[in-house]
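Worked Example 4.2. Consider the chain below.
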Amino acid sequence: MMEFVNRGLELTHNNGLRVHSVTADGNTANVRTFDLFGVNERVEIGPSAFEDIINDFPYPCDPEIIVGALNDVVHMMKLWRNLLAQCSEIEWEEGKIRWKFIVYLYELQKKKIVAANKIDRHHIDFEKNKMKVKYVVQVFSASCADAIDFCREDLHLPQF
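Applying the procedure from the previous section yields the following structure tokens:
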């Protein structure tokens, strides 16, 4: 993959064009390619975390020119949603994220109340709509998280 990107950058450079950035999804080959270019977005959380991030690399044909390396955030969110739905749970240092709470929230809202969010059947059965950004963003929205917290902490609903 790196050879493919290098060749593309070389061809654009030789034809008088300038590439300002390369955008990729979270595919393993793309992550590896960014690694080979020296991009490093995996840093320890701490005071200097942002200073340690390297999200650009020298243009192979002209090292004086810098090319940005970007992950497509929307695509990455879709991957996270798909992973969460498939694995049911993602654990990280802040705790666990569970798909079942989103499903419970949908089921609760379908029967009783709407908790100021937009979760509906399209968010749960997303296969036919898996490319629609709004469904992904709404699943990970603050209003969805707040509604789940409200059901757990204020309403003391056992499923949450």
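The chain has a mean pLDDT of 90. The first strand starts at residue 21 and ends at 24. Compare this with Example 4.1 before moving on.
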